[in-house]
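Risk register update: the risk of archive-format incompatibility is retired. Evidence:
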Amino acid sequence: MMHTHATEDYRLSAGLWFAPGDGARSTDCSVNMCAVGRVVADTLNAAGINTLHDETLNDYPSYTGSYANSRAVVQQYLARYPSIKVVLDVHRDAIETESGSRYAPVCTVDGRQAAQVMIICGCDNGTTVQLPGWRQNLRFAAAWERSMEGMYPGFTRPVLFSYRFYNQDLTTGSLLIEIGGHGNNLNEALYAGQLAAKGLAAALLGGA
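Archived output:
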């Protein structure tokens, strides 16, 4: 698991008002995507699924070239650990109105508010996007989505399936997941990371 845009972060607390820079970007790994990734990795490891978590800030100091940077990171891991089957790129979304008002996609699970999640799965358009293993990735996305939604109804947004690349050619288990958005607070995102990981563990261990 890694983060192409590791410096994406969240609001630090609930409420209607945003502090300057709140829910934008930070190099502090206790509040950015690395913090959410840590929860996902810990939950998967606790379930018996051996998980490596890379916290390289692939989008810092320059946002340009983030995907080339994260691709190189993943390739290094695959060379060192050729048994890796799944590569997850964990992000957060940014959803807002034309006027700039931010949306915070949420649901309630066991009495707690969690950020909603969305899986992104690319496919091959036969020319500019070359993803020969996209069908396997899509099956994986469907299994994970089905598991999460079955366990936590309303937790997921529909899978975004389109002509996108996102380095998903590196394994046949490569997906991108958006955990909440820049309108969500950090606690909602951390809880969502735990729930998403439990859904993934159930899908993988259940042979879905």
